[in-house]
Write a structure and sequence with these properties.
This protein is mostly helical. The chain contains 18 helices and no strands. The chain is globular and about 60 Å long.
Amino acid sequence: MPASNQESPAFHHQSAGVGVRDGCEADPHPRRWLALPVLLTGAFLPVLDFNVVNLALPEIRHDLGATASDAQFVISAYAAIYAVFLITGGRLGDLLGRKRMFLLGVLGFTVASVLCGVAASPAFLIASRMLQGLTATLMAPQVLATIREIFRDSEQGRALALYGATFGLANIAGQILGGALVTLHPFGLAWQAIFLINAPIGLAAYVGGCYLLPASRAHADQRLDAGGVLLLSLTLGLLVYPLIQGRGAGWPLWTIAMLSLAPFALIAFLAYERALTARGGSALVDLVLFKVPGFATGVAMAFLYYMLSAFYLAYSVYLQGGLGLTPLEAGLRMLPFGLGYFLASLAAARLMQRLGPRALTLGFAIQVLGFGGLIGAIGADAGHLAEIALAVAGTGYGIVMPSVIKAVIGNVEARHAGLASGVVISTFQIGAALGVAVIGGVFYSVLGQSPTAASYKHAFAVTLGCNIALLAMGGFLSARLRPATLRTSPVRKDPHRKFS
């Protein structure tokens, strides 16, 4: 990707519509640090809700009389809609106001969670999950876009580190909280508790957002590109849905047909966007973004990074199937990984400041070391060494997460921050879906039809080897970024932007 070799000396943009006032930063939003926890709730809830449902599926099936296909669709309906409409949600924030879209998303997600919790049939639960996914696409992209806009460039490293830590916290909380709620049945509730717990969190975020978030929107009077929305949604739907459903369904012909049609839909989308731009229209995805230094390489690294999501699937199956642990015990086994992830995310800002893109290379290398150590520890049945290796791998994850986001959105104009945020989070979801489909497929193929404890161990080790190969590719891409890419410098913001 040629763009990666053209990094500007500083990690900020200097483009039309983004200016300076007397050579200094524009005044930042005065309540930005109070607003950050509210924003991070919008990043926490979608990830938490994806992970927490996995451990409750057996109880959902038993209580609602759901089929195996119904249970799979409870997860896949949410994941597919979330991935497909994230870019549109980010663009809506650019055009209609990020605060407005964030609050609408939080409120809608809260209502949808309650509907999930009171569902009395599989169909009602699936419909409510689809509403959850749709409202999450309004909420999640505004988080990164607003961080990009309201914080000084010198502060963005810390804010993004906390954003990355939130992802780590949500992943591990989903495992542990899901196991605890399913096992303990608080207030006499079974699986319903995993959805109803979102209600107080969502309401607190909504009230906090009303008072603390700034109102902002793009200056230009632009309309949403409806044709682009349709074509992009079709493209992503043809790609994401079969990836999510294919493995469980045995890769029937319709999944192959959809995947085969996806490239043609993408070509049609790109041609439409170029033609619209040539006519002076406002495209859904401004393709100029991919000429921004570091953007294309950052997106590629984000894709590889989230393909590693197959690790969560393989490790959970290994712990419960191979070692016979309960869901709660399996969740607790993830604690070293989650702790390493969380703490490293908090330290990532300083690493980005000192090392620039070499922080990414370091993070990828640490993950390789951690996963390699985990292969050795599992082979030797060394439990304590496995915990150390998990903590090392989690540390690498925590360094890469905020660094790769910085690489994607740091040079993008503020007016495209929502779109860029939607692109990066959508890339995460597509990468996760492909990782589960491909690497998860490798895991189950190696595991075989009549697995033993030894075959679970072997299948998990092979999966870790696949992850190491992906990490090596990510490290190679990070090495192509110039040294100054992730270091902070005085940001050039729009002097006419006002906060309220």
